[in-house]
Design a protein that fits this description.
The chain is mostly beta strands and 719 residues long. It is 12% helix and 39% strand. Helix 3 crosses helix 5.
Length: 719
């Protein structure tokens, strides 16, 4: 591994991140060495089981890994053990005459952009990248002395010691999956520096153009675009805004695509702007062979949304910087179709008996309608949601727009505009549900939903009745306290839950509310889940913040649930929305129609739903025949029968049962390394849950995509 080719990360995304031509002599060192005459690093096979079905052999200076991909197609990766700066000797596919190379002489490389976290690991607003004097960038170097081959069921890992990326150090690990065209590359590294906030870029660099002639990707319009790899003196890094997060190198022998984990790669933002997350660069040096680099990238500061909190790296934590390859004997279109299959083409698959519900969108539909003079228009977000399979969207209006905290008629007219737009934009396949994110009285920020249109003011002047009638709007409420607010929620049969709990403007919440009557009331549903803060040492999304909160809330007492949220301000079809989303699957037979969406609140109130990133689906979860949100009687000391019916795309990493007794949280993690890609299975357990009060289930795949249920509540399980 050598220097990264990505240049100055502070230049505008629209400018070239270049290397000056005057550095031509320096570039000569980038030409890969042959490795002849050098000694290969030591290979440890002690953890490898030949019966895994994946063949790993040392052949002189090369380590060969051969496995069967999709449709039984034999695939091969060979590692150069004598020259780690040209680690990947070739990626190959089988032909009648033997293996033929697709990609040759490639160097897996990383770049790390590191700043300083301020105000604790849950801080969203510190924006490390703006403190430019503190920013350090590091390029990777691989100087290992040993390679370790291990197997886990049918999976095989090749781990090479001696990876250094500035303040981070560790291993470079490749994982191979039977029946899959995937190769997972990851830098598993840690740092001892305090308060590190960072991101990483990953690439295959200095690749030979001997067998690869074209680069391809999906444009933001969904069309395949190609660029021929022609010989030219070109040091400019090309940043691409693409759909599907993938870039493909294509040649006569086959193609290889690179792409990141679809959700975990993206740190939390308030907008989902596509900053250009793939890149490539080609260069020629004197009479030498043409070379090119391509990979995935992040952007720390550019674009309209601030802040950009980056990833957390607590000292000693093993950060996992993943990059996936997808290898085929076909063309780039076959690669792009294969990659899109892992995310259902960036959509949420329909499941009979469920409807998809997404919450927390500041779309400004009311104020936009008023700005258009109430003339009909179709906002772009509606078609985006429908194409993604989103059935219901819950708004969080008047968050920085409108006149929410005034007592004038304008507030009621804006509410009326919101209701009218929700009615107009809803149809038989899509329902837009009005809502707001409360910021006062109850503590922190919180989401509010009613089963029908409701008019209210957030202010209550002295002497103003709680409720009156104002023509032509009808009943109108006036809120001036927490008591007024919850009186409205109860009277109108609404629901409340904490948004971005323990983070952003809800830091410390709902913990501070645990003894409040309104929090303990069933109308306070619980809290919201989002992948935030971002810590790549966790195999789950969200740094475990929200999931731990769900466990804590249920140990505090009562029935509390976790609703998936997205929390963004703008959407258009070019955005990287899917990477930032999760979705709620509510058990419902049909969509509601305006102006009564009470069935949505009923499903939420029952807890009969699961949250997912989309790749893992929990078709059913039963504890002694009872579903999430329900109560089940169990006899102390007896085994409780548990069933989880799962479907997934990426190979699974693990599944887990989590339960609590009111004080402690326990978990049973079951490795799922026996699973292959695109599977479906019923997992069954018999568990003694004596002393437990609740239990939930979750499943996570190798890309950290996942799904979790709401708890089932246990009665009679006490000692």
């Amino acid at each position: 591994m050598g220097k990264s080719s990505q240049g100055n990360r502070f230049e505008s995304a629209g400018q070239a991140c270049g290397i000056r031509i005057v550095c031509l002599l320096y570039l000569l060192v980038l030409i890969p060495k042959t490795g002849y005459g050098q000694q290969p690093i030591w290979v440890d096979f002690s953890g490898y089981d030949k019966s895994s079905g994946i063949q790993v052999n040392q052949q002189g200076l090369l380590l060969s890994v051969v496995w069967k991909g999709e449709g039984g197609l034999p695939l091969r990766v060979r590692f150069n053990l004598a020259d780690l700066s040209m680690l990947i000797r070739d990626l190959s596919v089988s032909r009648a005459s033997g293996f033929v190379p697709i990609l040759e002489n490639a160097s897996p490389e990383y770049m790390c952009f590191a700043g300083k976290r301020r105000g604790g690991w849950d801080n969203f607003f510190d924006t490390p990248a703006i403190h430019r004097a503190e920013i350090r960038t590091f390029d990777s170097a691989l100087k290992g002395s040993a390679c370790h081959v291990t197997s886990d069921h049918q999976r095989v890992r090749v781990a090479i010691d001696g990876l250094q990326v500035g303040i981070f150090g560790g291993q470079l690990i490749f994982t191979f999956y039977p029946g899959s065209n995937l190769v997972q590359q990851e830098a598993v590294v840690s740092t001892q520096d305090p308060d590190v906030a960072y991101y990483y870029d990953a690439s295959l660099s200095r690749c030979s153009t001997r067998n690869l002639k074209t680069l391809a990707w999906l444009s933001t319009e969904g069309k395949v675009e190609r660029q021929v790899l022609v010989s030219q003196l070109d040091y400019l890094l090309q940043i691409l805004k693409v759909r599907g997060r993938a870039i493909v190198a294509e040649g006569p022998n086959g193609s290889v695509g690179l792409f990141p984990p679809p959700h975990q790669f993206f740190f939390a933002r308030d907008e989902t702007v596509n900053f250009g997350h793939v890149w490539h660069r080609m260069y020629s040096i004197l009479e030498q062979e043409d070379l090119f680099s391509f990979g995935i990238r992040q952007d720390p500061t550019f674009g309209p949304d601030e802040p950009a909190p980056l990833f957390n790296a607590p000292p000693g934590s093993e950060q996992r910087w993943k990059l996936f390859y997808y290898i085929t004997e076909g063309d780039a279109g076959e690669v792009l179709r294969g990659i899109s299959g892992y995310t259902h083409n960036d959509s949420f698959k329909a499941i009979p008996g469920y409807k998809t519900f997404s919450s927390h969108y500041h779309m400004r539909v009311a104020m936009t309608s008023l700005a258009y003079g109430r003339k009909p228009y179709i906002p772009e977000f509606k078609e985006v949601f429908k194409q993604m399979g989103v059935n219901m969207v819950h708004l969080a209006e008047f968050h920085g727009d409108g006149h929410p905290y005034t007592a004038g008629r304008a507030r009621l007219e804006e509410l009326q505009a919101e209701f009218d737009e929700c009615k107009r934009l809803s149809d038989t396949e899509f329902v837009l549900i009005p809502g707001e994110e409360g910021t006062q009285y109850l503590g922190g920020h919180w989401s509010l939903i009613f089963p029908r249109p409701v008019y209210w003011f957030w202010v209550r002047p002295e002497g103003q009745p709680f409720q009156d009638r104002i023509a032509p709007f009808g009943e109108v409420y006036h809120l001036g306290s927490a008591a007024d607010t919850y009186r409205l929620v109860l009277q109108e049969k609404g629901l409340v839950w904490q948004t971005h709990p323990r983070a952003k403007s809800s830091r410390g919440y709902p913990d501070r509310l645990a003894n409040q009557d309104y929090y303990r009331d069933p109308s306070w549903l619980g809290a919201a889940f989002k992948d935030m803060p971002n810590d790549l040492s966790s195999p789950r999304l969200g740094g475990d913040r929200a999931l731990k909160l769900m466990d804590d809330m249920n140990n505090w007492g009562g029935r509390k649930f976790l609703v998936g949220e997205t929390d963004i301000f703008k959407i258009d079809h070019t955005h990287e929305l899917y990477g930032h989303m999760n979705i709620n699957y509510l058990r419902m037979d049909k969509l509601p129609t305006f102006p009564d969406w009470g069935s949505v609140l009923e499903a939420l109130r029952r807890g009969d739903f699961f949250v997912t990133t989309g790749e893992v689906l929990i078709r059913d979860f039963l504890v002694s025949g009872k579903r999430s949100g329900e109560k089940v009687d169990v006899a102390p000391g007896s085994g409780v029968e548990i069933l989880a019916d799962l479907e997934w795309t990426f190979p699974l990493n693990f599944i887990e049962l989590v339960w609590g007794d009111g004080k402690q949280v326990n978990q049973m993690i079951v490795p799922a390394s026996d699973t292959t890609q695109f599977g479906q299975r019923q997992f069954r357990f018999s568990k003694d849950l004596t002393g437990a009060k609740w239990i939930r289930f979750a499943a996570w795949d190798v890309a950290a995509n996942g799904a979790f249920t709401q708890p089932v509540y246990l009665e009679g399980a006490r000692h």
